Amino acid sequence: MKNPMVGLLSWRRAVAMTVALPLVISLAVMAYAWPASRVAPRDLPVGIVGTGVAGQHAVEGLERSRPGGFDFHLYPDEESARSAIKGREIYGGFVVTPGSLTVLQATAASTSVAQLLNASGRQLAADAGTSVPRGATASARGTFVSSESGKRSVEASAEIRVRTVDVVPISADDPRGVVFSSALLPLTMCGILIASLLAMSNLHMPGWKRAMELVAACAATGFGAYLVAQGVLGALPHQHVATWSALSLTMLAISATCAGLVTLIGPAGLGLSAVLMVFVGNPFSGSTSAPELLPKMVDDIGQWLPPGAGANLLRGTAYFGGHGTGGQIAVLVLWSVLGLAAVVLGRRTPAVAHGPSGTGGTATAVLGPDPGGYPVSPSPAPAGGRPYPHARHAAER
Question: If I label 192, which of 162, 273, 279, 369 is the partner at 20 to 30 A Cα–Cα?
């Protein structure tokens, strides 16, 4: 007679292979591809220097070209706008005068935003150039103007001179920022790996010792990552101790969250951590572009997860002297504290308490779950504290 359980298991396996697995893969692809396909400025903070008619025209031109794309901040002079860029209040700015336009950018903040600001500056100059009288000579157009960043930009018209200034340039060893952005996924996976190794080993170690091990492992791994990113690749050039601390804190927030979930709900916590950090946290982090270039919901979710907060913190320590990093530090500390608290308090190591002398050494019940997370039930001893018959017979042999 055929066992009905065999057919049921075969049916479940077929459903998992043909429905569940393709659905999970499709969702993973969408999580990475959908935010990348929707990259566009959304309330991107930029500065405008020039309160006269020229500055007003610049604001109107930018708003026409990208409605809702920019959040404008007005500054009285160029030096104020530069200070705001260094303080991470804005991504860049436009210094507008009747005869020239200066694009202030910070490639260290985002190479994608820097390219966007350059394109917007050229568009502003082109729009202003349409008012050039027809008698203007063609030879006056197309001349080059050197910028302070060592690059060259084209003058849009005979009337508007355009130059580009990179206020906070990215490292010359990583001019496109690819090292910085591509390091986030390995760091995330490494944090989950640390937590999984800790969860599978030292099961009888007290929770506070496991938490200390987790902190030490993240600090050491963060130091190793910094040696590679800066010592070998030169992608994190400033504030060495703070940058190493940012790497370690990011890994701790990821590892502690994963370890805490495994402690509370068992092996399923590992899968939940992978979904939360790898398939949501990484693509929603904005590390390859900027958070303000992602859809609003994606931006909000990403900056409340450790990968997004860690990527922003790392930029702040490596290039901006730690300015504007208070929110990111608070997010990472919150995840770290909650995860470590779950590791310390979520499970107690079993301990055997021996009874008082004269009771035959009878063991009392074991408190708390066993290392696998299942409740332990004490084996009842026979009346009188005497061993079971089979144990007595074995002793007599």
Answer: 369
Contacts of 276 (CB under 8 A, 6+ apart): 257, 305
Backbone angles phi, psi at 102, to 5 degrees: -110, 125
Beta carbons within 10 angstroms of residue 56's beta carbon = 13
Contacts of 226 (CB under 8 A, 6+ apart): 236, 240, 243, 244, 247
Q: Are 307 and 232 in contact (CB under 8 A)?
A: no
Check pLDDT > 80 for residue 227: yes
CB neighbour list of residue 234: distance below 8 Å, 6 or more residues apart: 171, 172, 173, 174
Strand-by-strand arrangement of the 70-75 sheet: 70-75, 44-49, 92-97, 100-105, 161-166
Distance between CA atoms of 308 and 299, rounded to whole angstroms? 9
What CA–CA distances, in Å, run from 172 to 168, 178, 230? 12, 12, 12
Identify the burial level of 73 via C-beta atoms within 10 angstroms of its C-beta, where 0-12 means exposed, 13-18 middle and 19 or more buried: middle
Per-residue pLDDT tens digits for 73-106 = 999 999 999 999 999 999 999 998 877 889 999 9
Tokens of 250: 């990011």
* Residue corresponding to tokens 């500055």: 55
| pLDDT tens profile 47-69 | 999 767 777 888 888 888 888 89
Helices 240-265, 184-200: inter-axial angle, 10-degree rounding? 50
Instruction: Extract the tokens encoding 343.
Output: 């590791």
Residue 25: other Cβ atoms inside 10 A: 10
Cβ contacts of residue 181 below 8 Å, gap of 6+? 287, 288, 311
Angle between helices 207-226 and 184-200 (to 10 degrees): 150
